[in-house]
Amino acid sequence: MYRRVFAAGMADGGAARPRRRLAARSGPGGTGQVGNGVTTAIVRVQTGEERAYAAELARVEVRRRRAAALDAELMALRDALGAFASSVVEQVGSLSAELQLTRRGATAAERQIARLRADPDADPDAVAAAVAAELD
Fold it and tell me: What tens digit of pLDDT does each residue of 111-133 get?
């Protein structure tokens, strides 16, 4: 759709709508001049469908930018979670080894005590060596 507008009404480079429409006929003699040196021009006017399409494109672009920001945030969170998980595995792994050593020591002490109660005349060092040999 095209519309004839004043060139003087387009001071912002054609982005704004003209202040007034011209009649179908131009100025004196059909020369395209309205008078006082103002010329007319024919400019394309967007239809309602074109404006709606442009608005939808703008909404899509906003959603794309939001999705990109969320993806970046997700990647940062995944990296932080991975670092946290490796830290936990490292700490729990050392604690787990310490727990196993403690359990092994408790088991050895329980066996030594049981043997010494069963045989009060037994040598405590010999019993400790025998229990250590059994657990290895």
Answer: 999 999 999 888 999 999 999 89
Distance separating alpha carbons of residues 16 and 73, to the nearest angstrom: 39
Please tell me the total count of domains within the chain. 1
Does 7 map to a domain?
A: no
Residue 109's alpha-carbon distances to 5, 8, 101, 115, 136, in angstroms, are: 102, 102, 12, 10, 14
3-class SS of residue 132: helix
In a domain, 13, yes or no: no
In a domain, 105, yes or no: yes
Structural domain includes residue 16: no
The model's pTM: 0.42
Closest Cα to residue 15, out of 39, 42, 43, 41?
A: 43
Q: What is the largest CA-CA distance in the chain?
A: 137
